[in-house]
Protein 1
Amino acid sequence: MTHARVPDTLWFTRCPVPTATGVAADRGWLAGEFAADGIAVRSLQDAEPGADRATHFTHALPGLFREGGNVPALWARSRGERTRLIGLTWIEERQAVLVAPGSPVRGAAALRGLRLAVPRHSVPIDFWRAMALRGFEGVLASAGYGLADAVLVDVPADGHEGQWAAELDALRRGEVDAVYVKGALAVEAARRAGAEVAVELDELPDPAHRVNNGTPRPLTVHQDLLDEHPDLVARFLAVLLRAADWAAGEPDEVARILGAETGAGAEGVAGAYRPGTHRTLHPDLSETRLDLLARQEEALRAHGFLAGAVDVRAWADPEPLRRARLLAAADSSATSATSTGAPEPHAGRPRSGSRNRAVREPTP
């Protein structure tokens, strides 16, 4: 029997949002897990040499783990990339519809008939456009309307610096009536623009109206790595479970990590993430989350973002997470049995710096 050669390097990538991957990278636990095997673990953003940063979107690198937005993940799968879905998180990351200062528009129903900003970027997968469409779609649906009940205004976004800059400029010039934004940097951008909140999507009671690029957020791996080294995949996931467990008891540290991951200040982080976010980093493949991702797939396909249909349940493989949970439970039991009050393993490892940061170019 021929065994596949153990890879020299495992790669990971994540978006600048709350992720167990980001926490594990900050703690140095991913590198520590595989050091004895002679396997380097590197952030895709440390891409010189050995990897193409574009694979954050295409997932064409066989040794890559990705925890990020579902639009690129579904797009890559729809184009035939051999990825597998091995986990999903649901983290409420502030989504809002903004209007100009002094606008009387408030509430989902008030968007009917308004001019809604829909950005357009010259990129292979325009997830920014997808997010705006899905954000407005969810808000309007919560009031019994659809996108056809509003006026969609294309906003060319190439050449603008900063997230949401093109849409907020269009709002300032009076070319649109409302803009969709999300995340920590959006909180800061809205403050700078003086924009006012018309709708807080996080307050919509039905989670189906909050489905977007990051809700739910997939964790994917290449089929080749899973086929050839399922043990490595399970161990990687077990580290993420450990990181999520640790994060659940460290809200201040998670806030610090989020500041580094998002590039936002304390105000942006506090405004974007609800209290308790540090307890929501555990991935699963629950029926509820799979159903919500299937809704997202259907909507993205209807809007023309996908090359073909993606059967979400066929894409999902629960076995790696099952094995990871067993490993994590065994590790926890062993740690409890031998605990002597010694420092936490790997606690002295250097924290992530510029070589280990989340993607900084526009990412989901």
Protein 2
Amino acid sequence: MRHIPANRPTRARTAANASQPSVRSRRLRLPVAIGMALVTGASLSACGTGASAAGLPSTTSDLVKQAKKEGTVAWSAPKPQSQMQPAIDLFEKKYPGIKIKYTNTKAPDQVSQLKMEEAARKVSVDVANAGGLTVLPSLQLADDVDWAKYGIAKENVFEKNLVYIWSVPKVWAYNTDKVKPADLPKTWDDLLDPKWSGGKVSAESRASFMTVWDLDPSLGEAKSLAWAEKFAAQKPHFTPNTTQSEAPIESGQVSIGTSLINLVLQAQKKGAPVAVAPLSPTNANESYLYVPKGAPHPAAAVLLTRFLSSDAAQSVLAKTYNSRIPVDTDCSDPGDNAVLKSICDAHLKWFGTKTLDDYKSFSSYFPKAEKALGTDVG
């Protein structure tokens, strides 16, 4: 199991380089020679410019030199660029000559894109993001990188190839103008009180807000499905995703709802009447970065991922509420990490996704939870 202190810094198979066919005999027929040349040319074109990560330099200094020769790195993640820009600026300042091309891409869309690009051997992404249900397919897309060789702590690497970079815990948030702290629910069962019925609660229809039920040994699937059916009977205000579940809380349309800690903190910073409810437990909601097979700029990709795992980058990412936190409940040293401080101030207990089996379980659990909530669409 991984245990990651707050603000602590945190390999795919290489295809053998096929040697170009040579003419062993002058008696080779011209059409055959031309055909082989066409096939070889097409293969090389399809491979793009990506090189295997296994062929990268063994030292960080040589990695930097190669990365500078590559000159650019394409990073894709499901975050607004404004949240990543401070870290981008810091990287480009530290490594002049290497430019980051950032794209805000939804995680499922990124997986679909990379599957097609890797099949066509024309990958356009150097650094990709994985989290939740996209972890399993991402493990198949990720290249093999010896992260320890580049200074990445073992506890910050999941299944060899994914590097833990940030966590955005799922939380329950409330409108401070509509609910007094003394009246707030503190447990999931408290939400079944009739006073929260009739659209007073917003929730994400995809059921990922219930992830902790599949992680906490004291809860479990059977209990969660029974809870979900009772919760659905309360007629909550269901939304397509977590972001849209946050909006009615801020506007006062609902009193309490599912959200992400970064959305709550961003709203608070803008003066919205929202706060984290002391409803526990929840899940840490880890997010990872990896280098896809065939990445066009592998050295720059490894360098960027290494940088984002560093203390300096983590400190900057923390300011936009996108840094690492301990995988399981640990409030011994929140420091100046606003995410950690906020969930600790709310006395939340949280669980991390620590094993591959945990992620495998999600794919069968969520459909069942959605069915219990009445939000499944087949």
Protein 3
Amino acid sequence: MEIDLLDPGPFGRNDFWPTFTWLRAHSPVHWHPEPGSDDGGFWALTRHRDIMKVYADSDTFSSARGMRLGSDPAAVAAVAQRMLIVSDVPHHTRLKRALHQAFGPQQMPRLEAMVEKVVGELVAEAAERDELDFIDLAKQLPNRVVCAMMGIPRADWAWIGALTTDAFDSPDDEVRTNAHSEIFLYFIELLAERRVRPGDDLVSQIAHDTLVDEGDGVERPLSDQEIVFNLNGVLSGANETTRYSAAGAVHMFAEHPDQWRLLRGLGQGGIAPAVEEVLRWTTPGVHALRTAVRDTEINGIPVAEGARVTLWNVSANRDEDVFADPHAFRVDRRPNRHVAFGHGRHLCLGARLARFELGALLTEMLGVLDGFELAGPVTFNSSNFTWGINSLPVRLLRSRAFAK
């Protein structure tokens, strides 16, 4: 079988799944050539157990040398050990402990109230329409929440959302680079303003109240660079996962209305497992990259120091050894050991918030909608890194109670 995980075409066509099924069965630790690269290629892991082991072994597999295929080495070097997703211990531990203050349990009541308000507004607006491209709603949910968290002026929300999409989804390298530059410049200006006039937003909290413990009893504020780099990470992570998962959920409910009826019958107790199944099914973070810092082996196959190792989350979440009937969308699936948020030290910082956003959206839609019907072709973005639906025309079937 011809294997080319660098080709964006199969992702744009949503027909890459058989490739991962074959790899899991025949070559779960697969050497993938990459012409023009310094090392000639990379290892591709596709089984759940191998991926979990690498995620858990941050002493052997580094994140600081890049966390995705196609990264610009100079750009990675510029943010390494200062941006959470491209840092290793002890820097990662200190950064995550500091940033976790903004997403910890003490902050969740305020964030949950914010999410519920945004979700209520969006669903009410959408339910007044007969048809819409659901991705428009799916984009706005996380973008409104994260912009509100950061205290970004409402007039800038749509612009920030569009920039985030360009920065991570555009097929054009120049567009992506320019979008990242615009985001960094915006956060530099926003941070400077919050240094002088702090508020009760995330940027102010990180700038004034968040300290990094250097491990010797000395605490220091985050540097401007650390703050700006990690605000960019929060912005991208918050937008990508919820957007693609929300759209993917509605796609499945339109194609499988029995699952919507099942979820409605399960009531509020069915929301949490449904959210986990949505995350497993959509897996917006397609792959993650690690670099071996010493000679090692994976499932008996030698992996040399310096080798790049890619962890294909989309494949792990369809692993037949872990999930019964893995290619079926089942809202009542239990257990559900998916890796949509990664695993180990680099488990997504915003996972709790993303879960709450999806749960709030499902809860609100169950209250006013009897279901969904596809109203046009569904299209996907062509990316092997962050992937999902980029157009989902649907008809919303309003419930009788809401129609009154």
